[in-house]
Amino acid sequence: xxxxxxxxxxxxxxxxxxxxxxxxxxxxxxxxxxxxxxxxxxxxxxxxxxxxxxxxxxxxxxxxxxxxxxxxxxxxxxxxxxx
Length: 83
Description:
By secondary structure, the protein is mainly beta. The protein has one domain (2-74): Roll (Archaeosine Trna-guanine Transglycosylase, Chain: A, domain 4).
């Protein structure tokens, strides 16, 4: 399954830099082996920036009610983050 997920610029930059490989999601629909497309969101402009990263979900752990901690590895795809 492929899931699109909005992610704020601050966290998106950490992912691009290789400093972050885990996110918390409130959806219960993510499973190991799924693909997540992380779409950068600018909270000030209230719009997507156009940058995306495609990632493979490598582990999912329940965090709180209706929340999951999702580990992932970026994968090569048609989405190339702008620098």
